[in-house]
Amino acid sequence: MDFRYLGNSGLKISEITYGNWITHGSQVENDVATQCVRAALDAGITSYDTADVYANTAAETVLGEALKGERRESVEIFTKVYWPTGPRGHNDSGLSRKHILESINGSLRRLQTDYVDLYQAHRYDVETPLEETMQAFADVVRQGKALYIGVSEWTADQIRAGHALAKELGIQLISSQPQYSMLWRVIEDEVVPASRELGVSQIVWSPIAQGVLTGKYLPGTPPPAGSRATDEKGGADMVGRWLRDDVLTAVQGLVPIAAEVDLTPAQLAVAWVLQNDNVASAIVGASRPEQVHENVKAVGVKLDPEVMSRIDAALGDVVTRDPALTAKNTPQARPS
Predict the structure, then answer these.
(1) C-beta atoms surrounding 285 within 10 Å
(2) What are the tens digits of pLDDT across the range 27-65?
(3) What SUPFAM superfamilies would the database entry show (predicted)?
(4) What is the DSSP secondary-structure string of 125-144?
(5) Is 18 a catalytic site residue?
(6) pTM assigned to the model
(7) Are strands 116-121 and 201-204 parallel, antiparallel or unpaired?
(8) What is the domain partition of the chain in residue ranges?
(9) Strands 12-14 and 3-5, how do they pair?
(10) Interior CA angle at 285 toward 269 and 146, to 5°?
């Protein structure tokens, strides 16, 4: 495993972060989830990403159980706050002081730890003054319940404003967690340049585009049995937008490129995002332990410019690049 600094901090995280969105507490049984975490530890992955909303808090519980017994100082645990949890009451979502301070306590209890390494705003809250949100995060840090602060799916302007307030308050906002893959590049024009300027790194989710970049989905063919596209618990909704024949045909053009550099298409996809020097880590999930061992083979791979150009040519105009799409991930009202 290789490691990268997270933003302008002294914190190093593994280039692959194990994430348990969709899988833990819902898509796979707890014993298999634990096997996947053990496989991640065996592969040298030290960074683990979850959120209170995943499986309505169950994912944090599963991760806490799976990491029990590990030396706490040897792993980096990330979680998030914003989306509704519990009974979905009127204060059970958002980034108000009340919700943040209550949520961190619940997350720590479920994760069976005294602190998280990174506490992230899962979305921007238009209903709460940013000053209130950042003050609450600062208090979480000063209480020793989180070491660093991050955000997820914030625009460049939102990141700038949050970073400025964090600096005034004496805390470190060091990370952004956006979607990023060969197919989804909306952060490249605005979020990444702003982040580089501020000393913020990306921890990217969905680097394999919900499994589409594995090449297992074929144009004009039903999704394979047992794949995420057949998962009625939520996976199918997420992957469905990629299951167009033009996208799937273009992705098949990546298969020979991957083979030439001795990688699987999935490994090529993870290696591709790690070529971006503003990316500290790629979040990869798993429903089987062997998937973890396969994905870590992307670590340390250097793709030469000619390969990167061939990838661009193969995907052509199916790539989504519009930076305005990041703003569309900001809910216009607090969810309930």
Answers:
(1) 25
(2) 566 788 889 999 999 999 999 999 999 888 989 999 999
(3) NAD(P)-linked oxidoreductase (SSF51430)
(4) -TTS-HHHHHHHHHHHHHTT
(5) no
(6) 0.92
(7) unpaired
(8) 3-327
(9) antiparallel
(10) 110
Q: What's the rounded Cα separation, in Å, for the pair 15 and 139?
A: 29
- Per annotation, catalytic residue among 18, 48, 54, 217: 54
* CATH number belonging to the domain at 3-327, selected among 3.40.50.2300, 3.20.20.100, 3.20.20.70, 3.40.50.1000: 3.20.20.100
C-alpha distances out from residue 316 to 215, 268, 312, 320, Å? 16, 17, 6, 10
Query: What is the phi/psi pair of residue 265, to 5°?
Result: -55, -35
Question: What Cα–Cα distance (Å) separates residue 296 from each residue in 88, 184, 221, 225, 264?
Answer: 37, 21, 29, 25, 12
Residues 6+ apart with CB under 8 A from 9: 148, 172, 174
Neighbours of 215 (CB within 10 A): 19
- How big is the chain, counted in residues? 336
Query: pLDDT digits over 120-134, tens only?
Result: 999 999 999 999 999
How crowded is the C-beta side of 60, counted as CA atoms within 13 Å?
A: 24
Half-sphere exposure of 294 (CA within 13 A, CB side): 17
Amino acid at 201: S
